[in-house]
Amino acid sequence: MELLQLCLRYLLLQICCYIINPLLPDRQDFNYNSELARILSIDYGLKRTGLAVTDPLKIIATGLTTVNSKQLIPFLKNYFSKEEVELIIIGEPRNWDDSDTHATPLVVKCIKNLHKNFPAIPVKKVDERYTSKMAKDAMIEMGLKKKQRRDKKLVDVIAATILLQEYMGRNLDG
User: Fold this and answer.
1) How many domains would you assign to the chain?
2) Which end of the chain has fewer CB within 10 Å, C or N?
3) How far apart are CA 84 and CA 79, in angstroms?
4) Domain CATH number, residue 162
């Protein structure tokens, strides 16, 4: 239980660092010039898509940005020209009975588009149940005002970060 609380505090700290520092330039313009490949997380939606990435050592998941879903592929082409990414994970919307949701076909179409445009990068689906709720709960824990918590772009990028952090916790040795 203490480890879970520590992990949640760590995740909240990472999210706070992303949100609170307005002096940072837009993260999509960063060029880290790392030789180590990252993992990219996608929380895909009809209008907006939240993105998160690992650090080069795959220790920390950090929110990258939220993009218009129609601009996802051009954004990723630009990002992949600057950064090496070894894996894309994408949230798969599922109902409690494991059936498809109304958003599942959108994600399937996005995955096909990712395979078409980036055939060298594997794409893994991960269960995204609860991530938006967890993102909203994290925003409350951070003490964000109600107006800030209504920012759907922020919810999307935090949800992508949670997807990635959970994936790393389950799948990466460390």
Assistant:
1) 1
2) N
3) 9
4) 3.30.420.140
E strands, 1-143, in order = 38-44, 48-54, 61-68, 85-92, 123-127
* Cβ atoms of residues 19 and 155 within 8 Å: no
* Cα 156 to Cα 149: distance, rounded to the nearest angstrom: 11
Q: Which residues contact 8 (CB under 8 A, 6 or more apart)?
A: 138, 141
CA 118 to chain centre: 18
Helix (H) or strand (E) holding 93: none
159 pLDDT band, cuts 50/70/90, is confident
What share of the chain in percent tops pLDDT 70? Answer: 75
- Global pTM value: 0.74
Cα–Cα separations (whole angstroms), residue 29 to 6, 59, 64, 142, 173: 31, 22, 10, 26, 30
Instruction: Provide the terminal-to-terminal Cα distance of the chain, rounded to the nearest Å.
Output: 19
What range defines the domain where residue 36 resides?
Answer: 2-171
